[in-house]
Amino acid sequence: MRDKLKRLGIELPLLPTTSVGSLPKPPHLLEARQKVAAGKMGAAELRRLEEQATREWMTTQEELGLDVLVDGEMYRGDMAAYFAENLEGFKTSGLVRSYGNRYYRKPIIAGEIRWKKPITVDWWRFAQQLTRKPVKGMITGPYTMMDWSFNEYYPSRREACLALAKALHEEVKALAAAGAKIIQIDEPALSARPEELSDFAIDAIQTVTRGIDAYFICHICYGAFEFIYPEMLRLPVDNFDLEMSNSDLDLVELFRVHPFTKDLSFGVVDVHSHAVEDVETIVKRIRKALEVLHPEQLWIDPDCGLKTRSREEAVGKLKNMVEATRRVRSELG
């Protein structure tokens, strides 16, 4: 897929480093979001603080030496609720448990889903103006949006998912028109019901990406991959971003049986652990990946978004990840 990136005007080193998407929000930003919800702060002041936090993370990523940057999602709360709030056809329910002690307001599909206007484009453009390195555009995918919402309007999960795909296609089209060359579709729920992958999930991603000239990444984390692999390789994307370290790299053995045929963003640090992996541990994980992948296929990143970690933990993990990658690049010559 490196030829496609070059055609798009993107030159990356061997083993490109990146982050999945979300980065830790500073405590004062979390407090500000609560004040806005309580009517004690205006939206303009919150926007200023979100921009400030985005600038800080863009600078940090540059200093760490990451190759493909993310905006850090300082402007988002929950990944599904954020898009639901900005699409027609949704209303919001009460709090439901996501995982651990984290909660979100589960969206309700209450009417016909429509894309009203760009949702992430202004933030992508804001971040891209702060760097010469490529910044990923990022959306929550149609299958996960459907699976994480109550459906009170469409007659089936399939119809709800495909309606979301049509709406999100417009968002992806707007990102590409703004200049985004690398676009990530977050689909953490994709393995929830393996039978739906070939039934309609692949069609939904095809709808999202159809006719758009970009390098597409599909991020899937903490799923039962053994039930959807190798079928998931039929998804019309260029790169899969997978959690690997939290599950002790067990997918590597699966790839020995069924070779991985696309690019792979290989999670080398566990975002659900407070421990900052040392450089040598990460080097060993990258070497393990190279047992089943060609160097030209491999990207290096964390298992998932780092939003649940402290800033110090996130920076430590990313710093060691970049250093480990440099060492392996040197070994590869």
UniProtKB/TrEMBL annotation:
Matches recorded under Pfam families: Meth_synt_2 (PF01717)
GO molecular function terms noted in the UniProt entry: 5-methyltetrahydropteroyltriglutamate-homocysteine S-methyltransferase activity; zinc ion binding
Keywords, comma-separated and alphabetical: Metal-binding, Zinc
Cofactor field: Zn(2+)
Keyword Cell cycle: no
Any Gene Ontology biological process: methionine biosynthetic process
This protein's record includes keyword Metal-binding: yes
Cobalamin-independent methionine synthase MetE C-terminal/archaeal domain segment(s): 15-326
InterPro entries hit by this protein: Met_Synth_C/arc (IPR002629), UROD/MetE-like_sf (IPR038071)
NCBIfam families given in the database record: PRK04326.1
Protein name: Methionine synthase
